[in-house]
Write a structure and sequence with these properties.
It contains five helices and 24 strands. It is of the alpha+beta class and 423 residues long. It has a 24-stranded mixed beta sheet that branches. Strand 8 and strand 9 form a beta hairpin. It is elongated.
Length: 423
Amino acid sequence: MKKKLWRWISWSIGIFVLLILVLAVGIRLYSRTPHFHALLRAQVLAALNDALDGEVQFKEISGSLWNQLHFHDLVITHDGDRVLSTPKLSIELGLLGQIYPLLSSSAIRIARIGILEPDLNLAQDHDKNWNLTKLIKKPEQPEQPGQPGRLTISLDDIQTQSGKIEVQTADGKEAQVTALSGQAEVNLLPSGLEVNLQKFGFALSSAGVPSTSWSTALSFAQNDKTSSLSIKHLNVSTDQSRLSVAGTVDDLSAPTAKLTVDLIKGSAAELTTILPALPLREDISGRLKASGPLSALQVAGTITAADGRITASTVSNFAGTEPQLEGNLKLEDFVVEKVLTIAGVSGKVNGQVDFRGASVEQAEASVRAGISGLAVQGWTIGQLDLSGQLKDSRVAFNARSDNKNGSAEIKGNLVLADTPEYE
């Protein structure tokens, strides 16, 4: 009797396992059929269009749900305008691992995404809001405690190849990004967006500036209340120049910065192309640090050329209707005719300027400088010691010159107006 019972149990288990295997094989085979792909396409489109404030479309799905799916001719639009398109997007789902997070926390976690030749169109509206951030759907009403949250989509590993971006700002300026490749992590949360860029590189071109190559690692976070940016490193280079940036910017609507900019090399030829009025002759290098909110932004830095150094330190208020500045600027062993292209002027300058104010009418400043070997338009002046003060639109100055032929001293006052007055 026991033998018959065990035999029956063994046969039952075997039949059950066989049915499970047949069912698994059947599901696997069915998941590769055009009918299943069409059904899956409809469900994916419904989920994406529910999660985003935009419209998602793609032509077809190929591949296997258990391994890798391929979405062909994917397009995402907002208010009828294209934001993103790609001829092929590949996704590794890890299907069985999705069940628990989807049921427990309304979350979908995608292991890997490969994007071939993405084409992204970034545009600002008149209020300087980017179309990409508008894709994040805002809840119609605040979620109540105990109510289920909206869907969270985590994209753990996004790999991009040969992408391009068209950028248009609110003031009509345009730029083009090409050769975009790298790795990113994106989390679409009920409350906002998180983006982590890793090993990203691209080329940037825009009218009036030299073409540049960029590489960066940074993170961006946005929720219902604020947004922030953290730059691990941002390297920018041209044929002759190189720049590096690192730091953070909190609350982009009312920014508080902590940034360091290292100018490894600034080519005089390229800088004068960007700023034609800049009379620069020698290449420069230096470091600039900025910290604090716009209402009390502290900026300090040093710029060095082969024949001179400039050191500056300022505290500025850009939060009001007119910028308020206070600080000082020092020139050390600054050889004018070597660093700059000012015709007919030569000499070595050592001096300091202290300043404050928001306009010429409100400005206050003092200067104390010594210029050795000064020559102007063929006139040799020699050593010149200069001091002066600016207050209430009036300049008081004192200049003393010493050379082998003797010395001279000039004192005077200048009233700054539409028609200057001298005293």
